[in-house]
Design goal:
This protein is mainly alpha-helical. The protein contains 6 helices and no strands. It is elongated, with a radius of gyration of 20 Å.
Length: 152
């Protein structure tokens, strides 16, 4: 069990929350009463925090990729650094939580919807400037050599 904790924290939180709920249903107790459901909920919330970080990092990455493509005259080292930072953080997050791999595509799509709005707010361009679906694939967005060309 501790191996899973070390290798896939997200999956560990899901398993542990279920085990705690099962213990509560079995009415397992110690000399002091344990609120199994509350403890399970707290552990589960740690897993949700990891999932939230996945979406948040995609959101920042996609916002900057959009700005990079649609406002090329404003490109900066800061934008490039943010893109690199988010890619590295995402790679580390998935490596430490491989159980989250199936969540990537959905998190990416959801993050894009919000990134599109933030890119519009930050660039001053109309939201319609940005496609309704991501112009970048998940693989492109995560490719360390990919920096999109300006929209033709």
């Amino acid at each position: 069990m501790s191996r899973l904790y070390d290798e896939d924290f997200y999956s560990w939180t899901i398993e542990q929350a279920e085990a705690l709920r099962a213990a509560g249903r079995a009415r397992l107790n110690t000399p002091r009463t344990i609120d199994w459901e509350a403890v399970a909920e707290e552990i589960e919330s740690m897993g949700r925090s990891q999932a939230s970080e996945l979406g948040s990092r995609y959101y920042r990455l996609l916002t900057h990729l959009l700005k990079w493509r649609y406002q090329p005259q404003r490109r900066s080292r800061s934008w490039r650094a943010t893109i690199v930072e988010q890619r590295l953080g995402l790679a580390d997050l998935i490596e430490g939580n491989p159980g989250m791999k199936p969540m990537r595509a959905r998190a990416f799509e959801k993050a894009y919807r919000n990134a599109r709005k933030l890119a519009a707010a930050e660039t001053g361009l109309p939201v319609e400037t940005f496609p309704e679906t991501s112009p970048f694939t998940l693989e492109e967005a995560m490719n360390e050599d990919f920096f999109p060309d300006p929209e033709a």
